[in-house]
Amino acid sequence: MVDEVERAKKHRQITMSVSFLEIYNEHIYDLLNSSLFRRKQSKGSQPGDPLLLTIPFNSAQNDPTGLKLKWNNNDHYIVENLFTFECQSYDHIMQLFHEGIKNKAIGSHKMNLSSSRSHSIFTMTLEQVDPNNADNIIVSKLQLVDLAGSERQSFTNVQGKS
Fold it and tell me: pTM of the entire structure?
């Protein structure tokens, strides 16, 4: 995709951008805003274990309030204050993707050492503008969605919220 964008830049003005959000316990969090997260050992882990549970929080209130979902008259939904980063290369896109993955809520249980505890959406947006006609704008989005683990609770020995 990035190679095609580079070729198309000869004829159009093109902007690539990404965002990454998580839906956890019915709240929306920006996975690319590292200041919203703190890490702690997951329940039952031993000191030195690599698995950490990432916990979103509002530093002012020490409370996971999350971001607001809004929509406009055209039925376009947006997440208010979600960070969006303009990218110039495939490497930059992958760097942001991996940064967001580090902030995802994960936990371990009997069936899976790194089970997703949240839904997440990684969005790549491509905006094209025809230099001969500035009103001719094409916006394309590719959204990669990861749904929370669906392991049966009776097999995992997980209890309560994770």
Answer: 0.72
